[in-house]
Specification:
The protein has no helices and eleven strands. It is mainly β.
Length: 128
C-alpha cells in the first residue's frame, strides 16, 4: 500500500510562508486526486485544497484562496502546498491524502471519507 509522508511544517510568524511536501512510497500518486486537510486542536478535520489528475484543476477552501497553492510533481511522486501570508488561524496539523479512486474529480472532494490514504501530518504553527 502507498505510504504518504508530509514534511515542511514548522513555526512561522504571521505573514510568513511555508511549503509543505507530501512524498509517496510504495505506490504512485499519478492519476489520483490529491488533497490537503488540516486539523486544529479540538476541531474537526477540514478540507484545504485538492488537485486533480487533470492538469490545472484545483479547488480550495475559501479562506485560503489567493494565499495557498496546491501543486504536484508526478515524476517525483510528490504533492506540495505553498502557503503564503499565513495567519494564526492557519495553525493546525496538515495532512496529505490520496483519493480512493483514480481519474476522479467528482463526488465529495472535501470530505475525509473520499480519501483512502493519509499521511501522519505535519504541524504548522503561526504566531501573531
Amino acid at each position: 500500500q502507498v505510504q504518504l509522508v508530509e514534511s515542511g511544517g514548522g513555526l512561522v510568524q504571521a505573514g510568513g510562508s511555508l511549503r509543505l511536501s507530501c512524498a509517496a512510497s510504495g505506490g504512485t500518486l499519478g492519476n489520483y486526486r490529491m488533497a490537503w486537510f488540516r486539523q486544529a486542536p479540538g476541531k474537526e478535520r477540514e478540507f484545504v485544497a485538492a488537485i486533480s489528475w487533470k492538469i490545472g484543476a484545483t479547488l480550495y477552501l475559501d479562506s485560503v484562496k489567493g494565499r495557498f497553492t496546491i501543486s504536484r510533481d508526478n515524476a517525483k511522486n510528490t504533492v506540495y502546498l505553498q502557503m503564503n501570508s499565513l495567519k494564526p488561524e492557519d495553525t493546525a496539523v496538515y495532512y496529505c491524502a490520496r483519493d480512493r479512486r483514480i481519474y476522479n474529480w467528482g463526488g465529495s472532494y472535501d470530505t475525509v471519507s473520499s480519501y483512502g490514504s493519509w499521511g501522519q501530518g505535519t504541524q504548522v504553527t503561526v504566531s501573531s
